[in-house]
């Protein structure tokens, strides 16, 4: 099966391409490389023996998409391409709405022209806002987002839901990721944030490797067991497998399919710091700082629906997430350089 993968050179997309090739799928990657490096293609090839077809281009460029669709018999699309930095989205809302919302609309328009009716979209647990109840199920309330990035994900979900009502012969899958972390176990592929990392795990990894002095723990006065924020961290390889399960189970079935991709377990910031210390063999320096505006206390997924419908369940442990991140970070201290 040929699958167009937008943003396939990025963190989650690249790991998904590796797992797709292993599952005998053929990813055709498009990426404008605004947040990734061409070298990723070499790493995918080294791991799989296959160099995926790659087009450098933008999902907002309809003529470019038309050309790609005309050159391949594409059966489905996985749409990872987008901007994802919460803080940056507050200062650059137009760029975020243009890239994430407009980009998704242009893509679906090109798919409609090409007669491709199956799309899997990278959504986020951020659409749930601050949940009243955990674990979060797919029918928990959505839309109370706190920043333009989160709103852009929610808007795309709404646009796609309306589009599905008009085109009920499509298969539209919204995957709401919880907190993707970890790296390929080979240590050759992983997350390579530009500038100061926004997210916990890459920040811890850069402290451990000596690129940063210490972690700021954003708040220890939440109503959680140790007072620090609790999240559902999921290994990127499990997440990658979740996409393949979704494509296989519902990618050819008409419908609007919505799934949480998480583990169903919550871990605190201090638990992650401790686990990383064990993985790298030395304690990770940190200091307690004020809460980060917009953060929620706790968030983890109900995984029952994905398990039942997709036959998929995350299996990798926090110890594997931290060990694989450390393997990647210590072998590539400067990322893809
Ligand atoms: P990433 O930045 O590593 O990957 C995104 C890729 O898309 C990059 O390679 C970038 O160059 C490319 N891209 C961006 N805009 C593009 C455009 N207009 N045209 C073509 N290519 C473009 O991010 P990631 O962590 O791999 O995330 C993938 C998707 O998953 C994103 O949509 C993100 O919002 C979503 N998501 C990520 C997380 C997370 O914590 N990483 C959580 C929930 C949802
Ligand atoms: N944290 C710190 N110090 C840091 C970074 C994070 O203490 O330097 C804490 C946060 O306060 C939070 C936890 O670590 O309690 C996780 O923070 P992340 O920034 O790694 O992740 P978030 O849960 O805030 O957000 C992430 C993605 C969003 C996505 C959301 C979905 O960044 O894009 O998960 O749940 F929408």
TrEMBL record:
It comes from the Bacteria. Keywords: Carbohydrate metabolism, Isomerase, NAD. Residues 4-324 form the NAD(P)-binding domain. Its cofactor is NAD(+). The keyword Plastid does not apply. InterPro entries: NAD(P)-bd_dom, NAD(P)-bd_dom_sf, UDP_G4E. GO terms for cellular component: cytosol. It is an enzyme of class 5 (isomerase). One of its GO terms (molecular function) is UDP-glucose 4-epimerase activity. Pathway: Carbohydrate metabolism; galactose metabolism. Its EC number is 5.1.3.2. It catalyses: UDP-alpha-D-glucose = UDP-alpha-D-galactose. The keyword NAD applies. GO terms for biological process: galactose metabolic process. Belongs to the NAD(P)-dependent epimerase/dehydratase family. PANTHER family: UDP-GLUCOSE 4-EPIMERASE (PTHR43725). This is UDP-glucose 4-epimerase.
